[in-house]
Amino acid sequence: MRIANKFLRAGQVAKALTRGAPTVTLDLALRRRSRQKLVLDTGEEVGMAIPRGAVLRHGDLLVAEDGRFILVQAAPENVLRVTAATPTALARAAYHLGNRHVLLEIGEGYLQLEYDPVLVDMLAQLGGVRSERIQAPFEPDVGAYGGGHKHGHDETFEEDYALAQAAFQAHEPQAHDHGHRHEHAHRHDHHGHSHAHHDHDHTHDHGHGCCGHDHMHRHSS
Predict the structure, then answer these.
(1) 200: exposed, middle or buried (C-beta count within 10 Å: 0-12, 13-18, 19+)?
(2) What dihedral do alpha carbons 90, 93, 98, 99 form, nearest 10°?
(3) How far apart are the C-alpha atoms of 61 and 58, rounded to whole Å?
(4) How many CB atoms are closer than 10 A to CB 127?
(5) Residue 190, Cα to own-chain centre: how many angstroms?
(6) Which of 14, 17, 74, 175 could staple 58 via S-S, CB 3.0–4.6 A?
């Protein structure tokens, strides 16, 4: 069995070089998997082992170990296409859908997402917004990290969750809940144009479980 272990984005290779290449048609769930067995339109079975986290898109090319190309095509899926009377109404729909962390494809004048009757009802309550259930290729914006929204059963969920936790801890020092009170008593002799004395009283309360620690610091200059 041949193995495809690389991929190229659509447009990176001249069409003349890919003419006649076999194709593989995959829905979004399969295009998000990095390791699987593919069945080409020729009937040939090919193994795929591309870098984890990559999401294949319509028109991408898989590159087999023998150097030959395989053209990726996005399969039609059961999706909800959302349109609106005005750009503002469409933006409002995108905002509310984004708050629900759904995978969302943003097109020219429309939004597309996996069909969900609950979201159909939610969209119906927004003024000037229409939704229609159709069969179409689904290519959502997968986000800055490449993998888009993940669930516990996805291949790289544990790795991505650990990275997200580390990023949160690095950027959210308030998560440790240290209450800091800074009291600064400054006395300035403005008439004599001199700063005679500066007293800085710093009271730090650190609530550590059941035992609070108070630290008093006095600085004189």
Answers:
(1) middle
(2) 150
(3) 9
(4) 9
(5) 56
(6) 74
Measured in degrees and rounded to the nearest 5, phi and psi for residue 51 equal -55, 140
Q: What is the pLDDT of residues 34-92, one digit of tens each?
A: 999 999 999 999 999 999 999 999 999 999 999 999 999 999 999 999 999 999 999 99
Q: Are 41 and 22 in contact (CB under 8 A)?
A: yes
SS3 110: strand
Q: How far apart are CA 124 and CA 29, in angstroms?
A: 27
Element of type H or E holding 220: strand 211-220
- Residue owning tokens 């009802």: 121
- For the chain, list residues with pLDDT below 50: 144-157, 159-164, 166-221
